[in-house]
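Supplementary Note 2. Why include the ligand at all?

Several targets in our set were suspected to adopt different conformations when bound, so apo predictions alone were not considered sufficient. For every target with a known small-molecule partner we therefore ran a joint prediction. The input for zinc ion is given below.
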Amino acid sequence: MILELKKIFLNENESLSTHEEMEFSDMRENFRKPVSVDISVRNRAGLVIFGAEAKFTYSADCDRCAVFTEKDYAFKFSHILVTELSDESSDDYIQAPDYKLDTVSLLRDDILLELPSKFLCKESCKGLCPKCGKNLNEGKCSCSEKETDPRLAVLKQLLSE
Ligand SMILES: [Zn+2]
Ligand SMILES: [Zn+2]
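The joint prediction is reproduced in token form.
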């Protein structure tokens, strides 16, 4: 959705709040249900502050054991909005050209940055056996029992931690 913010930019203490159900059309695999977002924008002494709270379910295969997993997240974001970026502007500044802000594109970037780089079914996920491919969350495979070299056993222990 495009938020029209001219009134906010031009009037101190002006504010708005709105609710959006967002779809990230290129990522339907991961965001199967709309992302629910509460948005507020306010002008504090000439500084336009954007705040958002996004709640959503993220769906993907676990990066370790490849089991399909769905997790609920709630993230909060805030940005300072400017109509033009100057040289001194930092990364925290978001441009709203012509007082217009594309909330879907902004929050899509925010959410993707905030999601963990490794998506796991659970923090303690044991992953798959590199030899037989068994899901080690479901129990040990016979590969580990055949291991006799104690140095390798130590190495395995380290790798699994
Ligand atoms: Zn897993
Ligand atoms: Zn195995």
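Residues 54 and 107 are 8 Å apart (CA to CA). The chain has two domains: 2-114, 126-161. Comparable summaries for the other entries are listed in the accompanying table.
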